[in-house]
Amino acid sequence: MPQHTRHSLINVLLLWTAILSIVQVVFIVFYITAGHRASEQYRCSTNAHYAIPCEQHTFDDKRIRWLAKNPDATLISEGDVLAVKKDGYYFLNLQVTLRSCEEEKEHTVSLKWNNKLLLHGWINTKSCSTGLLGKVEELSAGGTLGVTLEPKTSINTSESETHLDIIYMRKP
């Protein structure tokens, strides 16, 4: 093999080795940073609490009474109002569906934290539902969450139709 051909092949192999090394370094950096973010996200959102309305729901001052599907006594207590027991960020999702729609009445649903309005929605007269209302809120221990429906009416207590999802995220 002539000297010139061997010299150009060595240059090509050196270039190829450099490119592969750079690609490996890039993949290692992405792997480390993506893995670090994923583990933090998992560590922060470990507690979830899903509430569904009581089958035999009763209204006291237009409030919906909730039962926990995944109870965690250290996080939230169930009832007409949900007592928050830990400081942190809470991802709140609410959907309320009526048993039947009355087109002449406009129904509203409110989720309040210590009488501070967090979520507010209207019942759609075609679907009889609010759809999904959601928000992340920083809540402190000792406060209460309550859902009110005005005017009072009968709600669909199916878990897929009426539910309050509460996902807890610890403060850093």
TrEMBL record:
Name of the protein in question: TNF family profile domain-containing protein
Keywords from the UniProt entry: Membrane, Transmembrane, Transmembrane helix
InterPro entries per UniProt: Tumour_necrosis_fac-like_dom
Superkingdom field: Eukaryota
Transmembrane segments: 12-34
Organism: Scophthalmus maximus
